[in-house]
Amino acid sequence: MTYQIIEEDGFKYIEAGQGEKLVLLHGLMGELSNWEKVIEQFKDRYHVIIPILPIYDLPILTLGVKALSRYLHRFLKFKALNQVVLVGNSLGGHVGLVFTVAHQEFVKALVLTGSSGLYENAFGGSFPRRESYDYIKEKVEFTFYDPATATKELVDDVFKTVNDRSRVIRILTMAKSAIRHNMSKELSKITIPVSLIWGRNDKVTPPEVAEEFHQLLPNSELNWVEKCGHAPMMEHPEVFNEYLEKFLDRILLK
Questions:
Q1: Which of 59, 77, 110, 235 has the fewest Cβ atoms surrounding its Cβ within 10 A?
Q2: Domain 6-123+182-253: what homologous superfamily?
Q3: pLDDT tens digits, one per residue of 134-160
Q4: What is the DSSP string of 185-196?
């Protein structure tokens, strides 16, 4: 990533561009670089902001999806951001959903890709062989349709993270919080436009999860990305960006 991480008042984030506000929310094992192609595509016409979710900083006793939603609320108020488009992958989508249920007045529209919140095959309810590089490599490759998307750099980063005892405890705590927090009874409250951009071959949040989101969210559209796993904005960024651009054009030009 060529963008500088800004640190202000306990928040860490990057931002680029001006215009309508896109807030990108990363997943549990997500890096800011996951959104690189999205930033490049939209920074000339939009104000793109990526807060770093404090998965490794919040008190572990309060760590969970709702705590990250409260953090997002504080961040948006700190940045004086309103009527934002939230774009969330995996855990980031779940945080976006929780936040939107509580603070729909802040959100103009919502984009979910591989979001948790209903059902997921968690990246790791545990890491029984976290010392094995090959095991972690296999786990990372499971995320994608094309295993080659799991670059050595990406696998190295995940391997380092899960072999840090403090971090892996937090990852497992966060994953369990997300699995326990099923939102099926709350989704009807979200009446703003929602775009679901989903990998047809997602094994973490499979296609039936996207279909259930589509049924339960009253103002949603469902877009499939073929030959794609859990992170369409990484595996097929051109297709992801095309769907996102069409959605933004439709909802922002109203």
A1: 59
A2: Alpha/Beta hydrolase fold, catalytic domain (3.40.50.1820)
A3: 989 998 999 999 999 999 999 999 999
A4: TTGGG--S-EEE
